[in-house]
Amino acid sequence: MHNLVWTGPKMMEMKEAEVPAVGDNELLVKVEAVGICGSEIEGYLGHNSLRVPPLVMGHEFSGTVTEVGGQVQGLMRGQRVVVNPLLSCGSCNQCRKGLVQLCSQRAIVGIHRPGAFAQFVSVPASSVHVVPDELDFFRASLTEPLACSLRAARRAMERHPFANVVIFGAGTIGLLAFLVAQTLGASRIIVVDSNEARLATPQQLGAFATINPKEPNFIDKVKQWGGASGTDVVIDAAGFQPTRDAAVQIVNPGGTIMNIGLGIDHTQIPINVCIRSEISILGSFSYDAQDFHDALELLKSGKIDPTQWSEIRPLYEGNQAFQDLVNGRVAQAKIFLTPNN
Ligand SMILES: [Zn+2]
Ligand SMILES: [Zn+2]
Prior knowledge:
There is one protein chain. By secondary structure, this protein is α/β, with parallel strands linked by helices. The protein has 2 domains: 2-142 and 304-338, Quinone Oxidoreductase, Chain A, domain 1, CATH 3.90.180; 149-283, Rossmann fold (3-Layer(aba) Sandwich). The chain has helices at 38-45, 93-96, 137-140, 143-157, 172-184, 200-204, 218-225, 241-250, 271-276, 289-300, 318-326; strands spanning 2-8, 11-16, 26-35, 60-68, 80-83, 86-87, 107-108, 120-124, 128-130, 165-168, 189-192, 209-211, 231-236, 251-259, 280-283, 310-314, 334-338. Strands 3, 4, 5, 8, 9, 16 and 17 form a 7-stranded mixed β-sheet that branches. A 6-stranded parallel β-sheet has the order 12-11-10-13-14-15, sandwiched between helices. A two-stranded antiparallel ribbon has the order 1-2. Strand 1 (2-8) and strand 2 form a beta hairpin. The mean pLDDT is 97. One zinc ion (ZN) binds next to helix 2. The site of one zinc ion (ZN) has 8 residues, from helix 2.
């Protein structure tokens, strides 16, 4: 089979490999659609210590079951599936609490084992969800990033269900957080991104306003758009010093700042302001089983359709796709790769 192997910073090559062996409790999946994740762009550049070359990335994917391990029950060849790539041990303290995304033995398909930038990938049978025929493979492969955004947005909005929401970042995660916030009943949603091409999609899909943070007085403008209610929820899907600063300035006393963007690690935040104004600062990482399930349900409902904000390229153009993403030459929020055509 063909696969796309990351061999070092800014280098990806198509190679020939054996079709993966399938363990007793595993399935072989023929990959029909795989999205490129923002974290993989960082990985491609060599900025992510978890990703060690040579590596086949790809963790947002769907496909068709072509082989079933001897011990697997209830799944068969030909079924259309989406894979939850986050594998957990099931026995550590966090797993026992249901927080599988915080498992001490956490492993991710496409990071710790070969991923879906390949024609075939083997996965534990317990990691797949069957996809109905009405849901195409591209939308199905959005389950993973949508689960991330769903977890962040609903936890942020738990105490503020009909609030005005400000979202930093209009890449896939920010855009999906916007769509989830809309679905959950947010009032005015304001999307902020310094890449103006990316603001077109939330504008078209009903954002109250969008803004480039380089505009003069941007914080005042965002506050004004919140009207008398102000902004109870800020979701930061970027994660840099300026966005974290702005979040504290924008959010109402008693409000919630949800951090999901991993832009940089160390950041200065005025904690005394957060104490005196009882601002909740939360973090959200990937998803638990319920989030993944609910993300798939939301996609089945047809409320989220990536057609106008995504593009499709063959796997063999993957290296070019990564270069285009790195160089900011991609206006769409998501690129899907197709390994089998
Ligand atoms: Zn990802
Ligand atoms: Zn565990």
